[in-house]
Every structure is written in structure tokens, then in C-alpha cells.
Specification:
- There is one protein chain.
- With 255 residues, the chain is an alpha/beta fold.
- The protein has one domain: Rossmann fold (3-Layer(aba) Sandwich).
- 24% of the residues lie in helices and 22% in strands.
- The protein is built from five helices and eight strands, in the order E-E-E-H-E-H-E-H-E-E-H-E-H.
- An eight-stranded mixed β-sheet has the order 1-2-4-3-5-6-7-8, with helices on both faces.
- Helix 3 links the parallel strand 5 and strand 6.
- The relative contact order is 0.13.
- GO terms for molecular function: hydrolase activity.
- This is Alpha/beta hydrolase.
- InterPro entries: AB_hydrolase_fold (IPR029058), BD-FAE-like_dom (IPR049492), GDXG_lipolytic_enzyme (IPR050300).
- Pfam families: BD-FAE (PF20434).
């Protein structure tokens, strides 16, 4: 395994966690997963980065962690649309180097946590040139009017029309199949974000699988000791989302 860093622009880069065993054959390329960690658009969450990368790497995925533009990188402009271009840049890299990296470019999934879930959902509902095979959302923000942020002053730039950042309103029949999970006791990003997203997926008959857990704070990641900053973030019941997601991914790979 090796880790490669590829610069996208002055405030964004992507890290590839690459399986390069001689046993791997170009005749049998691997699926890939692009991870958009959370961090409230302020920073990039480490707990939703490398631990997730290693978990999926061990299951036979080439994994990319997108360190997208956020506020703690010295930005004071509205970078939300720029973030979408940064996701597209990762797809472009994959399409350019897929043979070298032993990736099937038709089997690339996008996963987002929290604010990274907002980015992933926004990308997949924006009719992009490079579309994901499937979308995985972990306790995502899907709209800025469903409890996060608590106030728009959270951003260090102005948001004149928040509805244009509402991924729920942009869902169409072209939105990829989705796996989504959330906890009912999430006080940071209310579960309504996921419920409304599922409602809109159902309206246009986009296949989805949803799992809602009774208890667990925001930002659980894998909900195990690898991603638990406190004891309350260690929630064995919620750990089930990962094997369920793997099963969902395998079903998508067969389609």
C-alpha cells in the first residue's frame, strides 16, 4: 500500500490510498471510493479521513480522501461552488490514471460525512459530467435550513440565497442510488436532513437504503475505538452501518 498526494489548487488536495500488490491484475481493476470528510466547512475531520480510508482499503477499494477547501485554510470567499469543482477534479484524475492505479472508472463511489455529506450530495445532484456509481451519506447536512448551521454567521462569507445549496431540492432521476444513515439523537445535524433527502429520493424513484439509529452523537465515523474521541462516540449498535454499507456496495457493483 502507498499513499500519494495530488494537489488540486492552492487550498485543496487529494490523497490516494493505493493497493499496489503485484497480485493485482489490470484485467481485474478495483472499485474506488472518494471520501469527503466532515468538519463544518471549517476544517477537515481527521476521524472521518484515514480511519475510513483504511477500513475500505481493507475491503478491496482504492480510496481517495478529498481535503477540500474550508475556512481554516485562510479563505474568506464563498468556496461552496469551488468545492464541487474539487470533487470533479478527483474524478478527472481517476479517469486519467485509472489504468496506472488499477481502478475501474465505472465503479467509483462518493462518500460524505456531515458537511462533507453536503458536498457529496450537492455534487451528485448537480448533474455532473462524472457521476458516481453510488452515493454514501453519513449523518449528512443536506440543507442549510434544517438545523445546521445554527446561524448563517457560521460562515465567514455571506450566503444570500441558501436555497441554492439545498441538495434535497436538486434531487432528480439522475441522482445516483444512495446509502444513508443517521442517529435520532444527533443534536448537531438533525436527522431531518436525512429524512427529507430520502423523501425526495422516493419521489423520483431513486433507489436508496437508509438506516436510522436511536442513539449516538454527531460525528461518529465508524463508531468504534478508531474514530471515537470520547467514550460516548463508541457506539457498538451504530457500528453495523459499515458492514451494511459494504453489502450495499457489493450489490451496486453487480449492476
Amino acid at each position: 500500500m502507498e499513499i500519494q498526494k495530488h494537489v488540486i489548487n492552492e487550498t485543496a488536495w487529494v490523497e490516494l490510498y493505493h493497493q499496489n500488490s503485484p497480485a493485482l491484475s489490470q484485467d481485474n481493476p478495483l472499485p474506488a471510493l472518494i471520501i469527503c470528510p466532515g468538519g463544518s466547512y471549517e476544517h477537515i475531520s481527521e476521524r472521518e479521513s484515514e480511519p475510513l480510508a483504511f477500513a475500505f482499503l481493507a475491503q478491496g477499494y482504492q480510496v481517495f480522501i478529498l481535503n477540500y477547501t474550508v475556512m481554516n485554510k485562510g479563505t474568506h470567499h464563498n468556496f461552496l461552488n469551488q468545492n464541487l469543482q474539487e470533487v470533479r477534479a478527483v474524478f478527472e484524475l481517476i479517469n486519467k490514471h485509472h489504468r496506472t492505479w488499477n481502478i475501474d472508472p465505472q465503479k467509483v463511489f462518493l462518500l460524505g460525512c456531515s458537511a462533507g455529506g453536503h458536498l457529496a450530495a450537492s455534487y451528485c445532484t448537480s448533474h455532473p459530467f462524472y457521476q458516481a456509481k453510488g452515493l454514501l451519506l453519513c449523518y449528512p447536512v443536506t440543507s442549510f435550513s434544517l438545523g445546521w448551521p445554527k446561524e448563517h454567521a457560521h460562515f465567514n462569507f455571506s450566503l444570500e440565497d441558501c436555497s441554492i445549496y439545498d441538495s434535497n431540492l436538486a434531487i432528480s432521476a439522475h441522482t445516483p442510488p444512495t446509502f444513508i444513515w443517521h442517529t435520532g439523537s444527533d443534536l448537531t445535524v438533525p436527522i431531518a436532513n436525512s429524512l427529507v433527502f430520502c423523501e425526495h429520493l422516493a419521489k423520483v424513484q431513486v433507489p436508496f437504503e437508509a438506516h436510522f439509529f436511536e442513539k449516538g452523537p454527531h460525528g461518529l465515523g465508524l463508531a468504534n475505538r478508531a474514530t471515537a474521541p470520547t467514550e460516548r462516540h463508541f457506539v457498538p449498535d451504530v457500528q453495523r452501518w459499515f458492514p451494511w454499507a459494504l453489502n450495499w456496495l457489493e450489490r451496486r457493483l453487480k449492476k
